[in-house]
Design goal:
Blueprint (H helix, E strand, L loop, with lengths): L2 E5 L7 H10 L9 E2 L4 E4 L3 H11 L4 E2 L2 E2 L1 E4 L9 E7 L5 H9 L4 E6 L7 E7 L2 H11 L3 E2 L2 E2 L1 E4 L47 E6 L3 H5 L4 H10 L2 E4 L9 E7 L2 H22 L7 E6 H8 L4 H10 L2 E4 L11 E7 L2 H32 L45 E8 L3 H5 L4 H10 L2 E4 L9 E8 L1 H17 L11 E8 H8 L4 H10 L2 E3 L11 E8 L1 H27 L9
């Protein structure tokens, strides 16, 4: 992944010339320069350095009279579905980028890469190599404002043909080391120390205190990790020149809290000795999709934490969110002891929200066969980029299998979603650009019904498409309303959706004495209402109302459609008539 091709070299260029060039640019090589006739190969320590080399050298540096080309070294047989896009404006919204990527095929995964560059970098996986090829052709040089995209193939390990298993010396018997745990790239054994859904504590610390946290020869940070049984990553290269640096702490909840307190004490001691500041606040980074649940209805959760811990807590504005930064900053002010208590309560709420979302995602993938959650990019800041166990900032969650259409074309569903009237303009976008991008991305028809009157507080959005398209379109609409501040930061976005069901199935949705509808509400956390005394329409259908946040609404919709499907199957069997068994005497 970090091997680069250096092309268009003059015949007079030597390996020493290249080493000197990289040295002058402070680009550290991870091995020797492999020089061929007119080109060369070099390795870099990580992807960040590789990107920096490509961006700073390719087409910009002349060596012995020729301008050199620098790109990833990817053999043709491994140029498959994965590409990297660089020089993306840092303020570009996820939904705009996703809409652009979707023009050239089905996007299975988008992963943001941590770099020191001012612009954003993403790795994109398409469903097929043909789609990736078209994307490279169309996106290379694509202009967005004053930025011009730069695109490359990156190594697709899935395209590597499997190596034949080494033949054992004796009839199929494994060698002694074959069954042992293999070391991972970090040098630890392949089995992770932390559970699968590791949820790290992310802190922001003033850059001036990073040296004190690390300590002489790294002794201070080693002591923190040893005492707290945690893994502490200080992202010194992230946001070059910034006044603050992120720290990720991986451990149990207790281990994270202990490490956090030790770091706060180290910073406070350094501040006292250098007279840099009177009081050091605790700053926690949290993904935007989790912050609403931390705040709670009408801010109750946050107020309770403040009261219980004697702290003052503020949260950064939604306006600060971009493709480059999907996290918000939670600032806690108070004594070190008070801040540590607040950290425990804040992280408890964030972890609960994260685990609930993981459970909801797993449930959705069960309800919609083959649903690829990574390809959805549900919200503009993306549930698909929730913090993962070991990935960098903004990395995607565990990859699921790609979406496979049903054996027959999936049934078209219609959902009537109600949004605030004042949000219609934001949903449509300038000259209808946003709603067109959304429809193309989701693969759905999206229409906004006329207002029922001049004073109407809501407008109906009619979404037509198969289950996955419904999931994408509705998720994006929920996310857009949150992003555009049509709901306050202290509110979770809850919308009303209507779906039609055959009048013969309405009773089954309600259940005897309301049992089924009550179970639905308990299971999904959505409010489900089947209005009484409805007159069926010309198709003999009636409305079911669903009110709730995104995942609650989705789960309720799928469950109700399951009930309808069961009713239809039973009616078909009844119409066909089941043969009566004949008993011989």
């Amino acid at each position: 992944m970090n091997k680069l091709y250096i092309g268009n070299l003059s015949p007079s260029v030597t390996a020493e010339d290249l080493k000197t060039l990289f040295g002058e640019r402070k680009l550290p090589l991870a091995g020797q320069v492999l020089l061929k006739s007119g080109y060369a190969f070099v390795d870099f320590p990580d992807q960040n350095w590789a990107i920096k080399a490509i961006e700073s050298l390719s087409g910009k540096v002349e060596l012995h009279g020729k301008v050199i080309e620098v790109d990833y070294s990817v053999p043709k047989k491994l140029r498959s579905r994965k590409i990297q896009i660089r020089n993306i404006p840092p303020h570009l919204q996820w939904e705009v980028l996703d809409g652009l990527l979707a023009e050239y095929g089905t996007v299975e995964n988008v992963e943001q890469v941590n770099t020191d560059t001012e612009t954003a970098v993403v790795n994109v996986t398409y469903a097929t190599k043909e789609q990736a090829k078209v994307a490279i052709e169309k996106l290379t040089g694509h202009q967005f404002e004053e930025y011009s995209f730069r695109v490359s193939y990156i190594l697709d390990v899935d395209a590597v043909p499997p190596s034949p298993a080494p033949r054992s010396r004796r009839g199929g018997r494994q060698s002694r080391d074959q069954g042992a745990p293999q070391p991972s790239f970090s040098g630890s054994t392949g089995a992770s120390r932390y559970k699968q859904h590791d949820f790290p504590l992310r802190m922001l610390v003033p850059t001036q205190f990073v040296g004190a946290i690390i300590g002489k020869e790294g002794l201070t940070i080693k002591n923190v990790t040893k005492q707290t049984q945690s893994k502490v990553d200080i992202h010194r290269k992230e946001n070059a020149g910034a006044a603050e640096k992120p720290i990720s702490i991986h451990s149990t909840a207790e281990g994270c809290s202990s490490a956090c307190c030790m770091i706060l004490e180290i910073m406070q001691k350094e501040a006292d000795e250098t007279k840099a500041a009177d009081e050091i606040p605790l700053k926690i980074l949290a993904h935007n999709s989790l912050v609403g649940r931390l705040i709670g209805k009408e801010g109750r959760n946050l107020k309770k934490i403040e009261q219980d811990t004697g702290t003052k807590i503020t949260i950064s504005s939604l306006q600060d969110l971009t493709i480059y930064n999907p996290e918000r900053t939670i600032t806690v002010k108070g004594s070190i002891e008070a801040c540590c208590k607040a950290e425990v309560e804040i992280m408890k709420k964030l972890r609960e929200g994260y685990e609930n979302d993981i459970a909801a995602i797993n449930q959705q993938t069960n309800l919609i066969p083959g649903l690829n959650m990574n390809a959805l990019g549900i919200f503009s800041t993306g549930l698909s980029v929730l913090p993962s166990a070991s990935g960098p900032r903004g990395a995607g969650m565990a990859t699921t299998t790609g979406y496979s259409p049903f054996l027959q074309a999936p049934e078209q569903e219609v959902v009537y979603l109600f949004i605030p009237t004042q949000a219609v303009g934001a949903l449509i976008g300038k000259k209808g650009q946003h709603i067109k991008q959304l429809a193309r991305f989701a693969g759905a028809s999206i229409k906004i019904a006329p207002a029922e009157g001049p004073e109407a507080s809501e407008r109906m959005v009619i979404i037509t498409g198969p289950p996955e398209a419904q999931f994408k379109a509705q998720g994006r609409i929920f996310g857009k309303l949150k992003e555009e501040n049509f709901f306050s930061p202290k509110e979770e976005v809850k919308l009303e959706a209507h779906i039609k069901v055959p009048s013969s199935a309405a009773g089954r949705v309600i259940g005897k004495g309301g049992k089924t509808v009550n179970e639905l509400q308990n299971l999904t956390s959505a409010e489900v209402i089947v209005p009484r005394d409805q007159t069926p329409d010309e198709n003999d259908e009636v409305f079911v109302k669903i009110i709730g946040h995104f995942f609650a609404s989705q789960t309720a919709q799928r469950k109700i459609r399951e009930i309808v499907q069961q009713v239809k199957q039973q009616e078909q069997k009844h119409q066909q008539g089941t043969p009566t068994p004949h008993h011989s005497k």
